């Protein structure tokens, strides 16, 4: 029951993230939230969540470095 609940809401957040790619909105937040919910039960989702977090961290460092100049 719990796995179904988490999977349903993860898919819902992925769909919202996909919609927000088309219209302006916080798409990355919804996609990462969907990955977070899936990572409780699916190890592959945990891998993608860690990868997404590291890529976002690198991009934030690059933006900070560019803004300091």
Task: Describe this structure as you would to a colleague.
The protein is an all-alpha fold and 69 residues long. It starts with a helix and ends with a helix. It has one domain (2-68). It is flat. It has helices spanning 2-22, 27-38, 43-68. It is built from 3 helices and no strands. The chain crosses the membrane at residues 5-23, 29-49. This is Transmembrane protein (PGPGW). Pfam families: PGPGW. Keywords: Membrane, Transmembrane, Transmembrane helix. It comes from Pseudoalteromonas tunicata D2.
Tell me the span between the first and last alpha carbons.
Answer: 52 Å
**Strand/helix succession:** HHH
Rg on CA atoms, Å: 14 Å
Molecular shape: flat
Strand count:
0
Give the total of domains: 1
Q: Characterize the largest beta sheet: strand count, sense, and whether it forms a barrel.
A: none
The structure class reads mainly alpha
Total of helices: 3
**Uncertain runs:** none
* Strand-residue proportion: under 5%
As a percent range, the share of helical residues equals over 70%
List keywords for this structure.
69 residues, flat
Question: What is the compact description of this entry?
Answer:
The chain is mostly helical.
Could you outline the blueprint of secondary structure elements for this entry?
Elements: H1 2-22, H2 27-38, H3 43-68
Helix pairs in contact: 1-2, 2-3
